[in-house]
Design brief:
Number of domains: 3
Helix content: 25-40%
Largest sheet: 5 strands, mixed
CATH topology of the largest domain: Nucleotidyltransferase, domain 5
Order of helices and strands: EEHHHHEEEHEEEHHEHEHEHEEEEHEE
CATH superfamily of the largest domain: eRF1 domain 2
CATH class of the largest domain: Alpha Beta
Number of helices: 11
CATH architecture of the largest domain: 2-Layer Sandwich
Distance between the termini: 48 Å
Strand content: 15-25%
Shape: globular
Radius of gyration: 26 Å
Length: 386
């Protein structure tokens, strides 16, 4: 196939060295009749890319470069099963497509690097989390943020029920005490045994879940873990858990009683205050760093710091675009026009440069930014030359 559907970010295509670097973003729709307009808008964006390529590449080469885009336009199954947004990164050798569970601002650009700011925003850890759907018989794990929410697909053979974990058939007979009404009446011994057995088996099951989730997901991603389940399962699981990423917030409803959209909404309602606190802490950290000469919202200084690998954290405004680029050989800013096949967005270049060097990149909406320049950076060390 000429293109691949990607679910993780970053992707190896970001390591490509040879231009052109094509980035396409557009909002899409899940249902009819709204999604009928998606293909029309897509073709208009494709024409914008072609127009930009014509400034630098011959017609025959453009047709080869754009082949995956033409093939996608003919893929009826794809356009009948879109989500809320679409992102495409492509060069001469690869074409990677993201079906996004949140709308994105429409953009089609050819430049000297990929435009990845929207993808950083969607996949960044600042507001991402794991959700553990839990009861005493089975469990499920989800990953997402306020915009998208998907069940994690485990490796084949992974036990997900108590029967599979305990490697035996779990008894499903109802628990029926023999005597009611007289508080002084003795409880049959068989009832106590049954209750103790259920408790011990549930604890064994929960210990397996705790260890499995930590070793395979929490430890590698560092994402906060939230429980969704009946109140008694919260208490029992938290008492036995050794997962340091398990958070206090949770949703005390049976997870399998909710649709995926209801689950996402309930979880975000519970976790949003944590996200807002984290954002506030980042802004306060920047303001303190700036006061000590260890931070700046000056784009020229931030570009220089990114070039010198002197950025600890950079905050970037989500939907703002400043046409231009950062010279990869000097770190200097160059203004330009998006129609130019060598020009993208200065803010995106900042984010990409910092991202590739291992700095923390957080994309925030305008109202949460601590500056009006589009970026705010915390430096690793004080540099007197900027």
């Amino acid at each position: 196939m000429l293109y691949e559907i990607a679910n993780t970010f970053p992707h190896e295509i970001l390591d490509a060295k040879e231009p052109p670097f094509i980035s396409l973003y557009q909002p899409t729709h899940r249902y009819r009749p709204e999604n009928k307009q998606d293909l029309i808008r897509y073709k208009n964006l494709v024409r914008t890319i072609e127009e930009s390529l014509r400034q630098k590449y011959p017609k025959r080469e453009i047709e080869t470069i754009m082949a995956p885009f033409y093939a996608l336009a003919k893929d009826k199954m794809f356009w009948n099963n879109t989500y809320d947004g679409l992102a495409i990164l492509a060069n001469k050798k690869q074409c990677v497509i993201y079906k996004l569970q949140r709308p994105v601002r429409e953009l089609a650009v050819v430049a000297d690097s990929f435009h990845i700011k929207p993808l950083i925003r969607i996949f960044q850890s600042a507001d991402r989390y794991h959700v553990l759907g839990l009861n005493r018989k089975e469990f499920a794990l989800y990953e997402g943020n306020r915009y998208g929410f998907e069940e994690v697909q485990f490796e084949p053979g992974t036990p997900q029920t108590i029967e599979e974990v305990l490697e035996k058939e779990y008894e499903k007979a109802p628990i029926t005490p023999g005597v009611y009404g007289d508080p002084g009446a003795p409880v049959p011994h068989s009832y106590d045994e049954k209750r103790d057995k259920i408790k011990k088996d549930t604890e064994k099951f929960f210990r397996f879940i705790d260890r499995f989730v930590f070793e395979n997901y929490s430890r590698t991603t560092g994402l906060p873990l939230m429980i969704v389940g009946l109140p008694e399962y919260h208490t029992l699981f938290k008492n036995i858990s050794r997962n340091p990423f398990l958070i206090e917030e949770g949703v005390k409803i049976a997870y399998d009683a909710l649709t995926i959209d209801q689950l996402r909404e309930k979880v975000w309602e519970a976790i949003e205050p944590r996200y807002l606190r984290k954002t506030k802490e980042l802004v306060e950290k920047f303001e303190m760093a700036k006061a000590k000469g260890l931070g700046s919202d000056d784009l020229v200084k931030i570009a220089r710091a990114a070039f010198e690998n002197n950025i600890d954290t950079v905050l970037i405004e989500e939907d703002r675009i400043i046409p231009g680029k950062i010279d990869p050989l000097s770190g200097k800013l160059e203004r330009g026009d998006l129609i130019d096949p060598d020009v993208d967005d200065i803010l995106d270049d900042l984010g990409e440069m910092a991202f590739k060097k291992g700095s923390q990149v957080v994309v925030l909406p305008k109202e949460r930014m601590p500056s009006d320049t589009g970026a705010a950076a915390i430096f690793k060390y004080k540099a007197e030359h900027y």
